[in-house]
Design brief:
With 331 residues, this protein is α/β, with parallel strands linked by helices. The protein has two domains: 201 residues, inorganic pyrophosphatase (n-terminal core); 123 residues, Diaminopimelate Epimerase, Chain A, domain 1 (Roll). It is 37% helix and 18% strand. It contains twelve helices and twelve strands. It has a six-stranded parallel beta sheet with strand order 3-2-1-4-5-6, covered by helices on one side. The longest helix is centred in the last third of the chain and has 19 residues. The two termini are 36 Å apart. The model has no long low-confidence stretch (mean pLDDT 95). The protein binds manganese (II) ion.
């Protein structure tokens, strides 16, 4: 698969790298590392994300390569720029969010590089997906490592390590394979600091975020004999705490800490009035199967979905689907 991907890249001189809306450490890390590799090979690259890079990922971009998508200004003609448009860390074009309209207009070759579990990707000329990989950064590492003698450029090594940390939950999740530990060890041996990376990625809470966590945890709900635990956050909760949607990051990990919980959920209201759920499974329950019933998806143990309906009604439907799925998956 990576040989095919490499051959695809060889055919193109101007490569636009994008990731899913609300870029995360893996999507951004994989994009920056791949851009570094392509620039080294003499190609023109751009990385465009939407919305702007969150504060805690800015240390991955010391050269200022990452552009925040600005459809009415700097990126009005973006569709015409690349001869290859690459979506990284997603394999569904709509997950690009506002960038999707430009993606539809482009005459560039369209490809995706991803590790998410999904039906065959649609809307691409070429797809490079491997759901056995723990992170998109792992795929980029596998691509570049054999092609670079000695140490990787520091920007590339830091970006790859941050991507691996992000998608394995700092090497806690079930996708923390021997393979990704070996790759991480290689990067640490080259001078990457695990503690500094962790601090930069995660130890960045604001008072508003901690107040929001407190408010959400005050409303903790337990169902099905304590096997399903969830919290919910409304727009009013965000306003009351002076918090933003970025502050919801990692909140779903809190109910998962409970002893006896098999599935944890975070429900929230989006800015456009939809209801959203993030589901996390301890080990046994396939929450991807649950989210797919609502048009969402992700991984077996970590998935999400959105729906155009009031939060309370959505919570009731998802709860019923989770309980039914637990009935199937826990014997
Ligand atoms: Mn990923």
């Amino acid at each position: 698969m990576l040989d095919r991907f490499s051959a695809f890249l060889d055919c193109h001189a101007r490569v636009l790298l994008t990731t899913h809306e609300n870029p995360d450490g893996d999507g951004v890390g994989a994009a920056i590392a791949l851009a570094a590799h392509l620039k080294e090979a003499g190609k023109e690259t751009r990385i465009v994300v939407t919305p702007a890079l969150p504060e805690n990922l800015r240390f991955l971009d010391p050269e200022g390569w990452v552009e925040a998508y600005d459809p009415l200004g700097a990126h009005r003609e973006l569709a015409a720029w690349p001869d290859a448009w690459l979506l990284i860390d997603a394999s569904e074009p709509h997950r690009m969010g506002p960038l999707f309209a430009a993606f539809e207009r482009t005459e560039a070759a369209r490809a995706c590089l991803d590790h998410h579990l999904k039906d065959a990707p649609k809307g691409f000329d070429a797809e490079f997906t491997d759901s056995t990989a723990s992170a998109s950064a792992e795929l980029v590492y596998d691509l570049v490592r054999p092609r670079i003698g000695g140490d990787l450029p520091p920007v590339m090594a830091q970006a790859l390590y941050a991507g691996m940390v992000s998608d394995t939950g700092n090497f806690r999740h079930s996708n923390s394979t021997p393979k990704i530990h070996h790759a991480a060890a290689d990067l640490i041996a080259q001078g990457i600091h695990p503690a500094r990376t962790y601090n930069a990625l995660y130890q960045t809470a604001t008072p508003a975020k901690l107040k929001l966590f407190g408010r959400a945890m005050g409303g903790l709900q337990l169902r099905d004999g304590g096997r399903f635990a969830y919290v919910s956050v409304t727009q009013a909760d965000l306003v009351a705490c002076g918090a933003t949607h970025e502050d919801l990051d990692e909140l779903v990990e809190e109910p998962r800490k409970l002893k006896g919980v098999e599935v944890a959920a975070l429900f929230s209201e989006t800015d456009d009035g939809r209801a959203k759920v993030s589901l996390r499974s301890r080990e046994l329950v396939d929450v991807n199967a649950v989210c797919r019933q609502f048009g969402g998806g992700g991984h077996r143990l970590a998935s999400g979905a959105k729906a155009a309906q009031p939060l309370e009604a959505f919570i009731a439907q998802v709860e019923a689907a989770v309980v039914a799925q637990m009935g199937r998956d826990i014997v």
